[in-house]
């Protein structure tokens, strides 16, 4: 480092040097015997010779002039060691002279030539040794002086060029101008601090330098600095806050580096120790009493803060931050899988207003929420009040746990208490049992016995609410044919506490036979629906004929014969009937013998005889009608045979809405070919009971 002004003796010697000759006799003169002849060079040698610069040629000539062909210094090392390695001027005054010395020591075991050059500069000047001997003996040093005259206080840069027989290197010259200096302490120790809590220290920092400070400060987590960037005038002061927020217990240290705009970096040391403080819950598990659905119950617990800090707490869903990050990643992957299912033409939306219903928008919104969510505890069954807050030093806070079940079952949940001053999140196990509605039926089985088909019967059951909450209910019908024959009134409703509701059941059976149907009463909040089993037997109408058969005996061709019978309805319902004789012809009515003798139907009868459809030979009066409850009706059946055959048929009864051929009456007759000739009129038979 150079300082001070140039002495008078130096000034006088400098003036004297200006009048001395700059020509120095060579210490290794060459003997010139005469004019040297021209050399013959190869093309490559000529190209190399013509490509040399002046400095390269000088180095080559110095090597040729040197008689030392061997060196103890490795080729990758310098022959001369400069001291200092960098010439620095600082704390200088404009327009004053300052001198610095530069010594070059020969490290080899043989002498070497030395050439020192300083490029032209208005601020720097090189002063060589007085003897101006450029060949330095082994182990000896040659000292040069560098004169510096600044015009203003600013940074100056220059260099000295050192050329030896085999190398060329530089020694930089630097003049340091005005600098800002912020008087930070060398080390800042936070000692013992609560974990997951911000501890701050405020420093009063002054600019003791001679330049305005433009600075930026960097450090590593868990340390931070505020302000981290700014400017500070000469002699001014400011407050700098250093914060220590450790996430886990242990010893922390970090450098704090102050970066100046002039390029210098100043490093300070920060250190601190994170410890747990005395903050705890009064219990680790909590059980809420049995609670009816739609109602709520609550329990309390206490947080005791026996430390000297104001602790901030929050209830979280997961045990630590790492688990939260894993859950966020899982949710993001789920949203990406959903996005893959979106058609490609919907993935790029030019104008969001034109496609408000595209699912891509929903996926992006959900992804944004997941990325920004701190994942606090959230549950529809258990509610914590307050969810987060602050606890003053040496005080307590009461926490309210509210239980509101939605189903009749046992609920268990583990939540985690995250608070400043405690490294790990403390678990809290909460449980509670939901009690469903106390609803029951007066009977769970109903037997209606035998009922007539088509009849309507009504029955009643009681739906009882023995609980303290209102209970909505509804009837669920079975998906069967017979299930549609039942009607419940009311089909749905609300049961008040300790009240009952009469449920009327109307049955209108349309299907014959035994049945068993289960009807379910869906009660909101009950784990299982109530079941009512209805059983019985649907029977058809009761009716009969007063005779076992209709026997016409031997009948003659074309002679009508009439028999009577009575149909009696013994049921309690009207009987809508239809009578028919399967197997009877479907053609025109048969022709009597009187009509054949008179000849009025001869041609038409012959045509019918040749036709494909057989004649209708039986006539039933009445063939349909209604018989009132427990009533009867006389039926006439007339046979006019036009066919030579034996009749074995039956008179069948079809009942509307019930079925066909529910009752049959045998009909017997045979054709008698030797009967007498037909009379003028057909015989009439009386109808008897």
UniProtKB/TrEMBL annotation:
It comes from Strigops habroptila (Kakapo). InterPro entries: Hydin-like, HYDIN_VesB_CFA65-like_Ig, Ig-like_fold. It is found in: Cell projection, Cilium; Cytoplasm. Residues 1-22 are annotated as: Disordered. PANTHER family: DLEC1 DELETED IN LUNG AND ESOPHAGEAL CANCER 1, HYDROCEPHALUS-INDUCING PROTEIN HOMOLOG. Residues 180-270, 437-537 form the HYDIN/VesB/CFA65-like Ig-like domain. One of its GO terms (biological process) is axonemal central apparatus assembly. This is HYDIN/VesB/CFA65-like Ig-like domain-containing protein. The keyword Kinase does not apply. It holds the Pfam family HYDIN_VesB_CFA65-like_Ig. The keyword Transmembrane does not apply. The lineage of its organism: Eukaryota, Metazoa, Chordata, Craniata, Vertebrata. GO terms for cellular component: axoneme. Keywords: Cell projection, Cilium, Cytoplasm. It comes from the Eukaryota.
